[in-house]
Amino acid sequence: xxxxxxxxxxxxxxxxxxxxxxxxxxxxxxxxxxxxxxxxxxxxxxxxxxxxxxxxxxxxxxxxxxxxxxxxxxxxxxxxxxxxxxxxxxxxxxxxxxxxxxxxxxxxxxxxxxxxxxxxxxxxxxxxxxxxxxxxxxxxxxxxxxxxxxxxxxxxxxxxxxxxxxxxxxxxxxxxxxxxxxxxxxxxxxxxxxxxxxxxxxxxxxxxxxxxxxxxxxxxxxxxxxxxxxxxxxxxxxxxxxxxxxxxxxxxxxxxxxxxxxxxxxxxxxxxxxxxxxxxxxxxxxxxxxxxxxxxxxxxxxxxxxxxxxxxxxxxxxxxxxxxxxxxxxxxxxxxxxxxxxxxxxxxxxxxxxxxxxxxxxxxxxxxxxxxxxxxxxxxxxxxxxxxxxxxxxx
Length: 395
Fold this sequence. Notes:
This protein has 2 domains: 18-49 and 298-393, Aspartate Aminotransferase, domain 1 (Alpha-Beta Complex), CATH 3.90.1150.10; 52-296, Aspartate Aminotransferase, domain 2, CATH 3.40.640. The protein is built from 13 helices and 15 strands. It has helices at residues 39-42, 51-63, 74-87, 98-115, 135-140, 144-147, 165-174, 199-210, 263-266, 281-296, 299-318, 345-351, 374-393, and strands at residues 18-22, 25-28, 33-36, 91-95, 122-126, 157-160, 178-183, 213-217, 242-245, 256-260, 324-330, 333-338, 354-355, 357-359, 363-366. The model has no long low-confidence stretch (mean pLDDT 97).
């Protein structure tokens, strides 16, 4: 299906449009059925048309959708308390997206620096990262391709290679303006890049040593996808100063959140930041329903076991194919790094009833719903393995 000419041409869309979904399945306007292994890019962790989400939207829409943050919002307070309890953070600012949550984190870091008398605060960010497409988050993102044409970029960022502690240490030693480190626990857009186990704890220690804020972008990794509610929780006792989340928190309803602890939670004051729609009653009702479902159905554990099951399936199916370089997996963040570029595979898979994504040119990124069954996982492995083998045999 072609997109209307009235829609700005900002996406390289695949030629399909969906009418409805159920669980792990989407149905296009012609009635064709697709297994969704992408979840709207890690958004629909509970799948499509989940009863708890549908009920929350319906019941809240009958009562109240929006009032603005000029007034108290009880559901916002409840969701903030729930997120604080799960994360170990103190306070929450609600936005509408991950990029906005990261904008809030950046503003916290800059104001934190100015409050310390640093006139040009600098945030260390990582190569291969992705933090959003606003001007500040675009500047923080470690991808020159998506920055091209939008110069001048926002100043105040210093870049280090991902998973390289010595580079971070060197930047800190050579730049007295550094106030924070912003990093994804696992890089998603960069190709499911998983750092060494010592990386985040070492960053925490370094930030403590130099009084810097450790800020974690968990837009893609949070909300149970990495096998813990937040990916940093695999490290016992490790807490960031700031953590951002979005995507899976609303299961498709736009919501983002910037969580902070200690001095970072006290930095922003009235007038420093705001959002017209952020944390409105509808979005917060859905966020509470999503968090309750994740807890009630123990979906953090399910993400771990299902991710390992899928990875083992691909290992067995592709081990002698010559197509697979390696599998990168934590929870239900799965990257199949192939031996050659394979960007065409997303369209080929779509034509065969399977929704996937290719990032970093040769990494098939799989972000299945947390509620996927073993039978659906088997079907994913079977169909995609066959498509990969056929694609490489014809190259």
